[in-house]
Each structure stands twice: as C-alpha cells, then as structure tokens.
C-alpha cells in the first residue's frame, strides 16, 4: 500500500483529499501545518508528499526546502491557488516535482497521483 503525507491547513479540502485517496486504498497521514508535516516526515516513510503552499508555522515552500536538505528522492506535489508562472517556477525551484492549481477536482488529483506513483 502506498503511503502519502498530505499537508493542508484547510480542513474541508484535507478531508476531501483524504476520503478520495483512502477510497483508492492509499494510506494517508494528515498535517494541518508545515511543522506538523515535517515532524511526520521525519518519523515515517512516504511514497509521495502533497503540500499546500500557504500554511501556518512553515509554508509549503519552507517545508519543501527543509525536506530537500535531507531527502532528494521523495516525490513532492504542491497544491496552490497561486498559479501564476513565476509562482510555479518558485515552487519547482524550491524542490517540488509537480504543481497542481487549486481549485481541482478529486478525480484530477487522483489521476495525477496515480501517474506520479506509476513512475516509480
């Protein structure tokens, strides 16, 4: 079973993503802020990280930069309503592998996750 870490501070969106992924037999750990996500990451093995851009304590960019200090292999997808080209470039240069603009449908997210995990 593939294990995913979801870092998203919006509770309704987090619940929607978790329900969608668990229905497809993914194991999902949830974090509501960047520091909680970093702590979970340090204590578990993940196949994919899904990270919101704007979160309390550590932003998505700060979280990715801290993770990339110790792990270059983990696949990371950033979710953000900030979808201007310069924002996407900032996200990718921070170390994210993929970007998905909000709003998105659960089906779009699921298809992208399956595509990412099939690459391994």
Automatic annotation (TrEMBL):
Residue span, Response regulatory domain: 3-117
Keyword field: Phosphoprotein
InterPro entries per the UniProt record, alphabetical: CheY-like_superfamily, Sig_transdc_resp-reg_receiver, ST_Response_Regulator
Any matching Pfam family: Response_reg
CDD domains tied to this protein: REC_OmpR
Residues modified to 4-aspartylphosphate: 52
Record-linked PANTHER family: TWO-COMPONENT RESPONSE REGULATOR, TWO-COMPONENT RESPONSE REGULATOR ARR22
Name of the protein this chain belongs to: Response regulator
């Amino acid at each position: 079973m593939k294990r995913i870490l979801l870092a998203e501070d919006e509770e309704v969106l987090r619940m929607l993503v978790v329900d969608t992924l668990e229905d497809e037999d993914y194991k999902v750990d949830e974090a509501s802020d960047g520091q909680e996500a970093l702590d979970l990451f340090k204590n578990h093995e993940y196949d994919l990280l899904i990270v919101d851009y704007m979160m309390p304590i550590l932003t998505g960019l700060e979280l990715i930069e801290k993770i990339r200090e110790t792990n270059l292999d983990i696949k990371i997808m950033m979710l953000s309503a900030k979808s201007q080209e310069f924002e996407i470039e900032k996200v990718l240069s921070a170390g994210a592998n993929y970007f998905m603009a909000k709003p998105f449908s659960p089906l779009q997210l699921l298809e992208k996750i399956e595509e990412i995990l099939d690459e391994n």
